[in-house]
């Protein structure tokens, strides 16, 4: 580990939203350090609001941490790094006004990929996720699972070494998640990509990850890292293996107290990315 | 061929009953106007229908109707241009939005009818005042819809675009602009209602020219047939124009799914 | 394009400043237009004159007869549209079938600029208050009836089922389920109906009338008494704003 340069190095990162004393003040992350090794799949798991998605946004340069620094492939992160890493967000991140193909091409447009090359790369990416027959569909015409395949295709088409995935299967039903998880494991074994994957699901974390970073309740920091020593691509049979259950139970034990702690807190962070625009109110009012 | 089963299903369809209600109302109007009410004040629909030729033969009526259509068209176009321009300017800049949106909402909420005499004083009794009054009614809903359309964009769209290396121009061209389109068309529909209201108010107000001249002449002469005919034609124009923009909105007012 | 959310508080202050500056510029331009730039006094009166006229209008009480007429017309119009709108709307809402027959029909008529009926009402009822009351009642009937249908017709099925399962009878169902569920929607419709009734009364006074606030503005316009007309417009707008505020307050109170 010490020999090779890490794909991503997170060094003493803390992040807060708002200022102390303000109603919206939240200390999301506290002094977090982490190395992501090349070619591994690292899962970030923790209770709601622990800052794991915030950390992912900071790794990708979507916004700057309050303190601390991140380096990707040795280069300090100062903004989005579309040549080095690609994001897969939750369901809503495909542009609903573009077809699947247009969505995939758009990322390449932003990066200035030559026009002639875009079509071929989009085709390859859509074939890799098995969506080539749905290229001319709009996101609204696809199932949730297909939409996430499309989002994955968009990220793959950028041909980056690193994928940052923020609860990509979070909005899907369990069966679809399992299938997509298997596909991702296959993809990983073929492509040698580095993947950081935020999830809520213990099973998903154990099934996918080479290492699982467990977060404490807010202010979040990494409590422990668990190694899952099982080669990719992983088979469904892994899910019934004793090793799987032992690891899952170990994770649950680590998380249980933190989840209780997080639930007893009253405030939820208003925005997950310190993003702009009016603060969204979550949940409905009666 | 219509089978009895299909016929029965047709009869049970609410649209069928709706049509029945409309026919019933027209028949009631016909009977009451024909047998019970003073013909100076109301005219049965059959007479109104058969007198359309006479109405359009009245010198000045066709040109007044054409002029009204022209005013609506110009007023609508100007409302769309002004509404979209100001809506974009206000929607894209946070400070401008916070500063001017309350002012725009306040102006939109004002009872504009009170300033109609000023419009006629300033722009005269011709088309200009009617177009201006139509624009003053039509531009605000478009403005507000466009500003809202560029405002309420899910942060994740910006995040994902930026993560893929989008520049500010890219965000405008590929995220903000397409996101705005449905709101713009919703605004156009509301704007059309506004323009119709504004133009017709001004037309009715100015009694020395255009539609208002004929409504007051027909009223003074107790020419109920022509008055009802003229009002019906204007109502038909309004319904048709509303329907056109509604259809266009249905076509564009959402992203495909 | 998208400022930083963290700078919210300073923004609020600067937007206030922009608003004040905007208002100041408008007033200054108005003043300069009438004093320096030579815009005709008939088209644009001096703001100072307008201010004096406004004080005179309020102090002299000369507006009272017109205000009384307008308010009387408004009361008549709203009383008619409220009683008819709520009754008819409730009766329609009792049946899915009736809703499907009448709701699109009413919505379609509501989409027509009903101000077009004014010449017909003037022919039938004359230039006096009756035609204004009729127009105001017609226009405000639609938002009231439509919101009553929406309020009572689309009560959450689960609430009704839950109440039935607990043995509620019809009166209890109305009192504890239908009414509280429908009330906010109906009240919103009544508020909207009140506003459009007021506006259409003023509009019909402006277009064809002998009296009322709307007519008085036209009178001043025809006499080219522009300064007083501007002042009177400001006065009428203030009255409209006041009445709307009162109704909104009542709505807010009645809701809870």
Please, could you describe this protein's structure?
The complex is a heterotrimer of chains A (286), B (257) and C (256). By secondary structure, chain A is an alpha/beta fold. Chain A has a single domain, classed as P-loop containing nucleotide triphosphate hydrolases (Rossmann fold), CATH 3.40.50. Chain A contains seven helices and ten strands. In chain A, strands 6-7-8-3-9-10 form a six-stranded mixed sheet, with helices on both faces. A four-stranded antiparallel sheet of chain A has the order 2-1-4-5, covered by helices on one side. In chain A, strand 9 and strand 10 form a beta hairpin. In chain A, helix 6 (202-208) packs across helix 7. Chain A is globular and about 50 Å long. The model of chain A is unreliable at 268-286 (pLDDT under 50). With 257 residues, chain B is mostly helical. Chain B has twelve helices and no strands. In chain B, helix 10 runs parallel beside helix 11 and helix 10 (168-205) runs antiparallel to helix 12 (224-252). Chain B is flat and about 75 Å long. Chain C is mostly helical and 256 residues long. Chain C has two domains: 1-39; 64-255, MetI-like fold (Orthogonal Bundle). Chain C has helices at 8-35, 47-60, 64-93, 96-110, 118-125, 129-153, 157-165, 170-207, 213-222, 226-255. Chain C is elongated and about 75 Å long. Classes of the chains: A alpha/beta (286), B mainly alpha (257), C mainly alpha (256). Chains in contact: A-B, A-C, B-C. At the B-C interface, helix 2, helix 6, helix 7, helix 10 and helix 11 of B face helix 1, helix 4, helix 5, helix 8 and helix 9 of C.
Q: Given the C-alpha coordinates, what overall shape of chain B results?
A: flat
Query: How many whole angstroms does the radius of gyration of chain B measure?
Result: 24 Å
The counted number of beta strands of chain A is 10
Q: What is the helix tally of chain A? A: 7
What structural class do helix, strand and pairing data of chain B support? mainly alpha
Mean pLDDT rating of chain A: 82
Largest interface: B-C, 57 and 50 residues
Q: Which word captures the global form of chain A?
A: globular
Q: What characterizes the major β-sheet of chain B?
A: none
Helicity range of chain B: over 70%
